[in-house]
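Lab notebook page, bench 4
Experiment: in silico fold of construct C2
Operator: M.H.
Input chain length: 256 residues
Purpose: comparison with the prior construct
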Amino acid sequence: NALLALLLLAPLFGLLSTMIVTGRMSFFSDALGHSAFTGIAIGCICGLAPTAVAVAFSVAFALLFSYVRSRSNQAADTLIGVFSSTAVALGIFIATLGGGSFTKYNKYLIGDVLSVTPAEIGILAIVLLCVAVFWVIFGNRLVLVAIHPQLAASRGLKVKSTQTGFTVCIAVVVTLAINWVGLLMLNSLLVLPAASARNVAKNLRQYHALSVLFALTAALVGLTVSYWLGASTGAAISLCLALIFTVSFLFRKKVA
């Protein structure tokens, strides 16, 4: 089950990573992870399904961020800092409300991909299919919007709606993955694949393909290493991605 889940998660992370790095949204994905934790805390307190509440809260968080960004003259990283710090504070406040213990939320910080169920694998497959369709239809627009929003707008592209659709995709994937990857490791999986690919890719097609390949390689190697050494799978995958980034960084001049 863990292997199947990672074979679905890795392409998701690889694809989303390219646009996150190109659009300089690395900290935004981290903020979404914090908002997902807040949703989980709300779900646990209210006796609802934590994952369902977390998905709804993260999507609402992403839509609110897009709304504020489109109507503010503040820099994107400033707004991300505001939303991220608020989400963290709100999540901890709700989790510890009434003197509650924070210990039961530790599993969401570290994650456990070995706990994935067949039903959750089916959900991941559906999400991967939806994201792949979204990528086929809006891929070129996303690249143009991420690189030069003004040029995209001058060509008649709906910049705001495209950015909003992409942030919703990130919100859903981040929220679904937090149970298995862990909040502390999540952002590295959304940044390192594309960051590594950017070091060695010669064109946009290679950039996307290498990002997915690096994510898949790190997922499989990390799962194997964590199995034999009895360590956290999410941490093992992140370390593999860090190693891939180091190697790609050393070879960047030779490729260029």
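Observations: The chain is about 85% helix and 0% strand. The chain has a mean pLDDT of 81.
Next step: discuss at group meeting.
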